[in-house]
Every structure is written in C-alpha cells, then in structure tokens.
Amino acid sequence: MPVKLPDKLPAITTLCKENVFVMTESRAIHQDIRPLRLLILNLMPLKIVTETDLIRMLSNTPLQVELDLLHMSTHESKNTPREHIEQFYLTFDSIKTHKYDGMIITGAPVETLPFHEVRYWQELKQIMDWTQRNVTSTLFLCWAAQAGLYHFYNVPKYPLTKKCFGIFSHTVSTSILPLFRGFDDCFMMPHSRHTELRESDIQKIPQLELIAQSEKAGVGIVLARKGQQIFITGHPEYSPDTLKNEYLRDKAAGLPIEIPENYFADNDPKREPYVSWRAHASLLFSNWLNYYVYQETPYQWE
Fold it and tell me: How many CA atoms does the CB half-sphere of 41 hold within 13 Å?
C-alpha cells in the first residue's frame, strides 16, 4: 500500500524520481476504499489449475479483491468437470451489464489456428470490445495477447519453426513505468507457444508501446491506452511444475518437444525445475492491481 506523506515533504520529489509510489495527504483524503471487482476469462483447458495460478498471484497484495470467473458459452470445456463450471463460472450474458475494475484474459491452446477459425472467436471479440467501456484495465496473457492485438490493432501473428518453450530473460524499455516498480534491469518469464509477434509490427502502431522484450523470446509486454490494455506474450502466472507437465505430456504423446530452456537444473529433465521468475511475476501482478486498477478505477461506476 502507498505511504501517505505531507504534501510538501522533500522526500516526495526524490522518491518519485526513483519510481517509488507515495501518496500526498491531499490526494489520500479524496480516496474512498472498496473491494476491487476482478473478472477472469479462463480459456485454458485445465481451468482449475489456471484459476489457482492466477489467484495465487492476485493474493500477494493487501488490496481486497472480489473475483468472478467467466467461461465461453460457445465452447464446452473437455478437461474441467462440468460441475465445476456450473458451480463457479459465469457466462458473458450474465455479467455484460456489470462494471469491473480489472480483468484477465488467459491464453488458450488454439494458437496454430487462424483467429477466425477459433470456435468462440465471435464471442471473444464481443467480450474484448465490451472491456473498453466496462473495465478499467485488462491483462491479456499469451494467446489472448495475440488475439487482442490482432482484434484491436490488426497486429498479425507468425508461426515459429520450433516452439518457444522455457524461461527467458527480458529487459524493460523504461524503468519509470508503474508496472515495473521494484523490478531489476532484467526479469525472467515463462513462454510456451508456437507463434510469435514481431517488434516491427508493434512499432508501426502509434497507440502501442513495446515495454519489455527478450533477445530469445522476442516481444514480451506491450502497453496500450495508458495501461487500459496490457498484452503479455508469456505466462508469468505459471507455477513451478507447469512447463515440466507440458513437456512430459507432449513427450508421452510422441510430439516433437524439446527440453524447456533455462528450466531444469543443469538442463536435466530428471531434476527439479529451477524457479527464476516467481518474484517478478508476483510483483508484476501486484503493480498492475495497485497502479493500473486500484489507483485508476472510479469509486462508483456511472
């Protein structure tokens, strides 16, 4: 939580230059506090795993959060019990008149398909359009980042010759962004995808800002509309064993899969994964909740 300081305290200027967030007393007295309303559109097949991963990330903050889970009415999940969906998930029709402070749209295992061939593409486009008027800030993860950038800005995706699979180092374009408060000069993030975005396409669009990229994994994070939209091409929410489980699954199925890079100790799949991304992932979600949701959302939606 921010530290409340007297308006003219000299430390304010110094701390702001260091990208440390402080709140002046005059700003603090105008703030009302209520629980944040968040919505997760879960497109992943193992929904229970994904919702657990995301809630773990969202829980590392003193902010109080009320969470709704959303699934696509035009697609039936085959890997999550129907009872779980019926008990805990909502459809878009049931929430489209609501307002949310923040939203997360997850990845999905459909990246090799053209967007218009995805069964629920029309419904997803409707939901993405709805976020512009009803959500303060939306995080798009992995395939959702590609889908959002294509839908809103016509940014294409490209097939990779081999899967981008592992934990990769990223550098930030500017350390003064609130999203990167407390970050080191570089950070690690998991990737697991068969397609990519290209920097040259991002740079052509004035509304988009490439704020993190990787020499090996390419485009990392793209910012739009002053943080109303944040597109993340990787999976910062992944738990330690997720890539291991994906690797073993594909290997057992006889699919062409390489050992995930920078993941297993000594690059040996018989050894335990080396977790190098968790601290920055936790900070990323906390910064998003604080600076792009809590500090920006209205106390009462009109």
Answer: 32
